[in-house]
Amino acid sequence: MSDDDATLITQWNTLTLVHRRIETRIERHLHQHLGLGVSEFYALRALWEGMRAGTGLLYLNDLANGIGLSQSATSRLVARLRDRGLITTHTSLHDRRSVETELTPVAHDVLRAGSPLLHQAVEEAVRELDAEDNDEGLLRYLRGSTYGAAPQPDEEQVPAPG
Questions:
Q1: What is the distance between the alpha carbons of residues 142 and 27, in angstroms, rounded to a whole number?
Q2: Which of 28, 31, 78, 135 sits most deeply, having the most CB atoms within 10 A of its CB?
């Protein structure tokens, strides 16, 4: 194995470690503060993005691909979100294969509260890695996207319900 190969493997291992730590922190923050898992929050975010794009329709397969779950797992996730009052669903009148969804006012509040939690989780994980003297190039990259002014959710980022 060449030195370049060894360096690449080391960087990949560090990136994997960073990803696991960030996901673990995000999961913890979302669960503690909002009672949600990462997949549920990502699904709400994907639905909000779809709503913002003006589609209004949810194809389960598209949502599944967007959040990295199987179609059956996504169906169960959508049912949980509906049962918790975060979304409403009904079969589309225009296309019986699709389900129309709408985020509830509670979901909008969750999205506004959740975004800073994600930012905080990433910052904490990067600070922890920085203290461990990890790959400086990777840390510089992560610092550039996490340190500084945190984007604050506002009416443009997550629209008010209605």
A1: 19
A2: 78
| The two three-digit tokens of residue 117, written as one number | 């939690």
d(CA 136, CA 123): 16
Q: How far apart are CA 114 and CA 102, in angstroms?
A: 18
Residue type at 106 in one-letter notation? V
**Residue 68 contacts residue 82 (beta carbons within 8 Å):** no
Strands (DSSP E) contained in the chain are 57-58, 87-91, 99-103
Residues 144, 126 contacting (CB under 8 angstroms): no
**Pair 78, 134: CB distance under 8 Å:** no
Q: pTM for this one?
A: 0.73
Neighbours of 128 (CB within 10 A): 13
pLDDT for 139: 66
CB atoms within 10 A of CB 145: 10
Q: What is the pLDDT of residues 18-54, one digit of tens each?
A: 888 889 999 999 999 999 999 999 999 998 887 777 7
Helical packing angle, 105-131 and 136-146, nearest 10°: 150
CA separation, residue 20 to residues 59, 103, 104, 113 (Å) = 29, 29, 31, 22
